[in-house]
Each structure stands twice: as structure tokens, then as C-alpha cells.
Amino acid sequence: MTKQTILVAGSGFAGVWAVLAASRAIALAGHEDRIDVIMVAPQPKLAIRPRFYEAVLENMEPDVSELLTAVGARFIDGIIETIGAEAHEATVLRNDGRRETIGWNRFVLATGSRVAMPPIPGLAEHAFTVDRLDQAHRLDAHVNALPDLPDTPARRTVVVAGGGFTGLEAATELHERLSAMFAAQSLRVVIVDPAQEIGAEFGAEAGKTVRDALSEIGIEQRPGVLLSAVDADGAQRSDGSRIEAATVVWAAGVRAHPLAAEIPGEHDGAGRVASDRYLRAPAAPEIFVTGDTVKAATDDAGNFNLMTCQHALSLGRVAGYNAAAELVGLPLHPYSQPKYVTCLDLGAWGAMYSEGWDRQVKLTRAEGKKLKQEINRVWIYPPAADREAAFAIANPDFVIVP
Asked: What is the rounded CA–CA span in Å between residue 38 and residue 27?
């Protein structure tokens, strides 16, 4: 009997947990000899992207090859160039340059998202991002070299474009690093964002906590402002002003991986595919979309998943399980993630932890920081290469948030 194939594109949070969940469902049904679970990614590594803003970039891409082997999944190095939604045949460009075609019975798109870089003059050439680990290392090397630059105010000035999670965490971390680096010398860290208030997306209570923390730290807030140009010496702002800065960081939003555009049906403004409650693409039901490539209802109150690892972990479990369940005759599992929390690192101030979509602040400062470090350094990492341990957390009902 010819084996069936579940093809998972991507080795991020959603991709890894999709493979674990699919393998678990196949094992539950006793069909390991009938179905292959294959992951395709450039490397069998899980990028711990939520930590790329940090100063110490160690253990940020744990190898998952032994984990995949432990659960009976295969890994193919390369990138998927085309999904082949109609023919059920994906084209894979291998790392060595070869192209091959892989037939599939169910496809799981878990290729994540990329930072959105608009055509602002000089942005791509001169701004830093923390979207990928190599980019985070580039920023780290630049910051470490700042003391070697001429002693000007620009050397001690950082502009961060974007007042969301990534921008706030990058800005507060950089302020802490430069404070230690330049000691008694004055420094500037400036956040610019088009919103009318920095942290507006966090709501009233949490947003005020964020702004108060920034003020206490000494970070300048410039709401209602965009960057209009970037060069080697600083940034021009949409209000006509200019900031001389040696460091400009772009953290103003992401878009779903371009492969999502291949899937027919409705897409949102970030390029995500609108799925059904089982994370299938309605116009191509043998394709499951998960992580940052999907827009899915988290509850019955009109809330949808955000492009965060918190949602990606659960989305991956559900998509992987359902992809396998359809092939082995298990009941499908509807995606639901009604509990929503945030834990925002704010550098030397500490961290803020909130619960609910209205973001009720529960922990701040040192208490919040302790929880943030537990999340960043333990909870979001893959399990050991042990089949039982992996399957224990691959259940689509598993909940990781506090």
C-alpha cells in the first residue's frame, strides 16, 4: 500500500508543533506504517524569534532533528517554492540547488511571517531589524562597535520605528545596553509610531502602564509620526524633523510568508488566509494554514489570533492533529483559544503581564520580569527528544499560558 503524506512547510513554532501533533494522532490511530509526516525547512532548527531583541543571543535556534526522529517524522532540507494546491504536488528547492517534487495528501502551511519593509528611502540599506537571527546578530555587532565610533550624540542615539511588542522590547533592551555602555554620558532612545499614543494597541490600562514605564526609563515617545527616510547618520521623520542617530531599528509590522498568497480564498491585510474552525483553507480544504499564515477565530466573541508564538503553538497543534485526523478517521478538533495573555519585556523597568483581550494588568516590574523570563527561556522551547514527552504536549487541548 502506498503511503500517504502530510507535508509541513516550516520549522517555526507552528511547524514543529504541527509535526508533533500529526505524529501523535497517527500513533493514536495505529497507522504509523501508512502515513509519512515530512517537514520541509532550510534547517531542522526552531528559531526562538520572540527573544531576538535580547542582548545575549545564545540557544536561540535549538536543533529539532532528534525530536523529529523520536516521533517518527522525516525532515527535508530546502524551501517549498510552490504548494501545488490543485495537483497536490509541492516543488521543493533543496539546499544543494536540486529541485524535486513531493506529492502530498494533506499540506500544512507553517512558514510564518516576515518583517514588512515599505519603500522608505534608505530603510533597507541602513535600518536594523530583529526579524531573523542573523539580523539580530548584525544589530548586536553594531551595538558592540558603538564605543569605537567618534564621540558624537548620534553614537548614543537610537531610533526605533514601531510601538508594538517588538519595538517596545527592542527599545527598552537597547536603552539598558547603552546605559551600561556609556555610563554617565547622555543617551537618547526614541520610539516613533503612527498611533496617537505609544502602546495604544494595548488598551487603556496596559497602554498607560507602558507609557509610564517608558517615561520612567527615559525613553522618548513620538506618537503620530512615521519615518520618511533613513541614512547612515540618522532618520527623517514625517513631521519634517530629523534625528541624528547611529542606530535605527525597524519594528513596524510583519506580513504572512508569500506562500500564503498561493492558497485560494480570502486573505486579510497582512496576507493571512482566513480559515474555517478546523484551520482548513475553505477554498482548498486539503490545505491547513497555521501560525502567522492564518487568520482564525479564537473564540465566539469576535477575537482572532495574533501573529505571536502564544497563538502559533496552539494553532500548530490543532492544524497538525486535524491534518492527520482526516486521514486516519479521528474526529476533527475545532481551534479555540479563549484565554489571551500578554507579557511585555520593558528592560530595566521589568515586565508587564496582562490577561484578557481588554489586557487587565496583573503583574509588573520584577514579578512580571520573572514570568517573562520563564516564558522566554522555558515554556516556548521544544521538548526533549522523547516520544512520550513530545506527545504529552502535542495534544490539541494542551494549554501553556498561566
From this structure: 15
